[in-house]
Amino acid sequence: MRSLPIFVLLLFVSLNTMAQLKYIAHRGASYYAPENSLAAIQLAWELGADGAECDIQLTKDNQVVLWHDGNTERLTGQKLEVAKTDYSELNKLEIRLSPTNSTFFEGEHIPLLKDVLKATPKGQLLVIEIKCGNEIFPELQKVIKAYWKTGSIAFIGFNFETISLAKVNFPEVPCYYLSSSKEDVLKRIPDIKKNKLDGVDLNSKIIDQQLVDELQKANAEIWCWTVDVVDEAIRMTKLGVKTITTNRPTFLKEQMITIK
Prior knowledge:
Blueprint: H1 6-20, E1 22-25, H2 38-46, E2 51-58, E3 64-66, H3 73-76, H4 87-90, H5 113-119, E4 125-130, H6 137-147, E5 152-157, H7 160-169, E6 175-179, H8 182-194, E7 199-203, H9 209-217, E8 221-225, H10 230-239, E9 243-246, H11 249-258
Parallel strand pairs: 1-2, 1-9, 2-4, 4-5, 5-6, 6-7, 7-8, 8-9
Antiparallel strand pairs: 2-3
Helix pairs in contact: 5-6
């Protein structure tokens, strides 16, 4: 039996890797709906994303909400500090698609994580970035235990202590350390392994072959953010990245499928 030419084998491997690549919608389908809104999360799945990413914080009255910024001004026009405000007050605010758009997707409010978990379909992935500190864990444990019934979840976070504690609190949930510094990641590889983190979620710009090689030695899975152009997605694929967070999951997925 004749063996296949090496370039054919490499092409097969490349195409197979692209097919396995997962596309995560950044803050939900935030290109079309207000970021971190329930509409954005649900729309991400409807548009065919492999998962939806969201940000969580703790309110003054210990409610776990989806929100990125420390205050609400950018997307509501009113400045309330999330950590210093009860959810009943935050829930009165309407989220806009952007700081200048208040008409598209009217009626969206700051959602509770429990409502998003209840709306997560079977087989779908919700990637949860922890934006605050360790104070969130007592309430987060209650919410996850009570409302995580379907779908899959993963935790990500920039604070190494917090994401490591997430792994302690939720050993069955994949946890990934966020970073935009190659030097930081290389320095932390021993602790990533020691703390049993599942991998890293990195700014795509810092990822190169050296970093990939070192992470693979530690059996650390590599995710990346935020990639919206095909050339960078191809580069990530060739380097062995498993998951791409993007503002345009449908566009990127369709473009990558057409590549031969």
